[in-house]
## 1
Amino acid sequence: MPEISPDDLKNMSPEQIAELQKQNCIFCHIASGKVASKKVFEDEKCVGVLDINPANPGHVLLMPKEHYAIMPMMPDDIIGHMFMVAKAISHACLRAFRVQGTNIFVANGVAAGQKAQHFMIHIIPRKEGDGVSSFAMPKKKVTEEQLKEIEKALRQRINYVFGIKDNEPIVLGKPAEEKEEPEKEEKKEEKREYEDVKPAKKDVPQKKDSDKKESGDEEVEAEIIEEEKTKKKEDDEDEKETKSEIDLDKIARLLGGNLGLK
Amino acid sequence: MNKECTYCQRIAEGKGIIYSDSKAVAMLNDAPSVYGHILVMPREHYPIIEQVPDFIIDHIFRIANKISVAVFEALRVQGTNMIVNNGVSAGQDAAHFMIHVLPRREGDGLSMQWVPKQLSEEEMSTVELQLKEQTKTIGSFQKEQEAPIELKKEKERIKVIEGEENYLVKRIRKIP
């Protein structure tokens, strides 16, 4: 690679500088496969490799294939996708190493401890007494006034970022989703009734002949029900798969137990 | 909502909440590690990340990112950390899944650095194989379920022919 003087840098366009950063980014080379690494996961948007300086065995770096320096520069869909993958890798760590927890860690900016010029998500398997203490959260005391002051400063900016009008009150209490729940239950009950009645109907041939139109509708409905059933089966199978080896409930229960919760 | 969970209660009360929508809530931590320590969490009660549905993960991290952007600008900091402590052994201390968003400044007293563990080439290969075996299945993500299909509200009625006993009653009589 040719040497670039500071004068050259000044004359370069932002696009050219971005291109230069990509060329010099070791993690871009790892993602594209030019530099050898221990890849544990890869799809079209991101790649997960083992950290060569791990905090714990199984420390994974999940990074986007595109070059983004920090998280705020990334498009929303890649952020969403990568964290869904991060969740799955965290689950994979629990199963593979039989650990009881994981840390998911992101650093934006040098002040936050970011070392590479390429955004990445750290996934670190954790065991009781493994000596990793960097993610412990010290608890400091604050006064109500201080909290209000921060809240005021943040609210305005957050509203701006999300495009919420400043005077709009925050919606509290029951969100729309919760209200829908009782309806769903009713529908389920109806369906059950319907299915119960149906077999009895077969015993009456007269009725079938008399209402042919209805039976046509019912066939469609029967199909829908069957579709739903198959969907349910698939869901159940998925659940079985994920719950196969490691007991997530146990990890969750442990958490509750420490707090005196159920 | 879990009645015994302090965070579910705080969501219901609405104290110190700085952002809220139908799935996610962001609030200030009242025992902060740094100035402006924010917690982003789902409205629903899930103890650990593996129990949170994928579409909520998708949504909640987008929100966390936007909050991190707002934090950069509002508090004029030089960096942010996003941390999920998942499980007691990882330092989680509340049974409600949450993302910590920490505004960071040079010399704020926090260190998120770790001492690297030395693993031999052989150990690294074993770890790689073990993990690869488990990441094979990653690929399909759970989407938000659409509203259930509406079924006919009318109930099926059984015709009663006068003078004749209903066939259902007949069948019941047959049962010994």
## 2
Amino acid sequence: MNFSLALVLIPICIYIPLLCVETFYGFARLRGRHHLSDFFHASWEITHTLLVFSVNAFVWLYADTFVPRAPELITIALALATVFIIRASAYIYLYFSPKSAHFYRRAEYIFAIGNLALLLLVFFAATKVIEL
Amino acid sequence: MNSLSAARAFIGDSLAFHIIFALFGIGLPIVLCIVECMAEKYKDAVLLHVARTLSKIMVLLVIIGVVSGTLIALQMYTIWPGLIKFGHDIIGVPFMLEGYAFLIEVIFLSWYIASWKKRSGYRHALILIPVVLGAILSAVCITVANAWMNAPSGFTLVDGKMTDIHVWKGLMTMTAFFEVTHSILAYIMTTFIAVLAALVFAVYKGMQRTDGVKRVIYVLAVCAFVTQLALGAIGDMSLRYLSSSEPNKFAAIELVEQSGSDQSFRIGGRFNSDTQKVEGAITVPHMLSLMTGFSTETTLKGLTDIPEKSQPLTIVHTLFEIKMGLTFLVILTTLVCVWGAWKRKPWMYSKRTSVALIFSTLASIALVELGWMLTELGRQPYAVNGLLSTAEAFVGDPRVIHWGAVFPTLFVILFVVMILSMRRIIRKEV
């Protein structure tokens, strides 16, 4: 494996397990097991920079491969961004609000489903990129 | 609206949203370091509470910055691939480095937040230094890339492709120096004003007015004023430099009609592209040449000498004038606050001062936005000045129109959640 490829793969290989953990806790919260996610802090959200790392490395180091195929990735990239924003809104709401807050339960559902959607979209995007 | 206009509006909305959080990501660690150090120095429990509240708000703003920054990255890569194709050999370097700078910032930010109970005083505040350095380095990387788009250099263009590339020569330019210093100082100044406004408002609402709180308010007011002076000096130098480095943008900002010396300074007015004349402006003869090169003989490029297809958007003239008007109001408010905080005047903590400072905060944020609008709109119709048009950089996909409508709604949702969370943090802590 060359250095450029390592810069693309290593961050995403760390990110995906972390996202899986977050997804698991997202669903665990729905079953009332809040204690499982007690260690989560707001700064956990910063793990998403790993995804940006990977995307950055791919785009800039493999620009010649990426640029001609960019139109094929528009929908998946913007869908990923949409889910990302919705999920983050739910997370912020859950983290900074008391459990008695009005939309708390709904936010828990959005967070869990958002995590799963994000995981699927990252997987789908990775498959698409490998095809390139 | 065609797909190119939609894509431009889309990236414009996203950048305008992101910049608010990016600026606080840079300014808040600096302010927090000051507040926490002063809390330790004066053994002030109220100040320590303020520092803790600010740290929570900082995390909230950084999270939103990460989310909006990710959207911009994805958007830039998929909607503007022409820019990557053309400039990846040079701007790829700062974009990749930015990720590492941000990593430094977030690692130490997480450590700082996690160690509130374990560490205290100066040792805890020291963790903020790498946070500040990471945040500044991150901003430097992005701004340097933007400066290269404004004044591309460090290569030879052969058949529309860059050859003989010198990355650092291309990035480390005077344009980059002015853009970086001016923007980062503006972010820091805005944060000083915002925290000053928050503290004065909190005192007005009943927060204990301890000696430490009064001193922090004074320090923040002085810091904001000093930053404003530095901003004024750098802004003036950068505008004069712009007349030679980006003469088209300068001509649009100052409404220079025809090339030549003895240029008049114009207040108000607009450039009529049909008649190629400036209409409705108040003119001060010779003044623009005098201000730009300290001589009436200073020659400046005029809008009529720019081919019509390359003419920049002259709306930047109006934006620049709004920016100058707001700058004057913000400086005036800060100066009054420095006086009030120094002399410990009771009106410093009144409703009127709170309102004036809240207005100054909003005006300072608007100044940052206007600054970036001037930079970006003034470069149009190019993505890379004079070399790559915005239309060439665009992917040319009509699907962008639909997505451009989705994201502003999502930004509103995220903004509402942020306000709700911020209210909860403040009510719980202060």
